[in-house]
Protein: Inositol-1-monophosphatase
Organism: Pseudosulfitobacter pseudonitzschiae
Amino acid sequence: MVGSANLNIMIKAARKAGRSLVKDFREVEQLQVSMKGAGDFVSRADIAAEKILKDELMGARPTYGWCAEESAEEEGTDPTRRWIVDPLDGTTNFLHGLPHWAVSIALEHKGQVVAGVVFDPAKDEMFFAEKGAGSWMNDSRMRVSGRSHMIEAIFATGLPFAGRGDLPDTLKDLGRLLPVCAGVRRWGSAALDLAYVAAGRYDGFWERRLKPWDMAAGVIIAREAGALLEPMDPSADLLDSGNVICANEALYSHFAKIIRA
């Protein structure tokens, strides 16, 4: 696929940040780690990757706004566009030496995400999409799975860690969902969960209390691959709400009914 100039900038930035992260990942035991909160860590590698991304993205498009996990939000001189960035989605996996984490970059235009990149450097898988142009992983076009029966389907979610109060809701979700599906996975990266729905590896995904940078890129990648996505409250804004339900079209209605029960 030949992408737009903005998409090419995003892919280039993701690869550059990914190379930096891979170097630190090989020396994970020596990373300088500081505590941000219960179960929520930030590392030197995380901050260094965000600097690379900001230098690349804002250097190429200095008028755009900036919204990222590890730095203050900035409004651009072009108020219609902003970058939404997570330099390391799956930080806890990274710090434990688990090779499942990603660089996530989205471009928002007039309140709508119009391009997204999710790069998994450990597996060299680049997931990307632009509005109206489909979803891709490296050189291959992606489509959501064709499964239509819940009992055959695998879903992904995030499980609340220490310091979060949404455990009762998640346990209720699991109590309703597990008896009627083939399984639920918790791999620790919402960006990759959404990309995996796009690739047909998962049949659906749901999670609460996500930040915009956790899911902005994954949302357009999943949608362009044919997934349906909504906030848990259909009247809410998806990125602002932080609560997402995503699945292929055949399963979506049944799946969403279970999660919203």
Summary: The helical segments are 5-25, 44-60, 91-95, 167-177, 190-198, 212-224, 238-241, 249-260. Residues 25 and 94 are 7 Å apart (CA to CA). The mean pLDDT is 93.
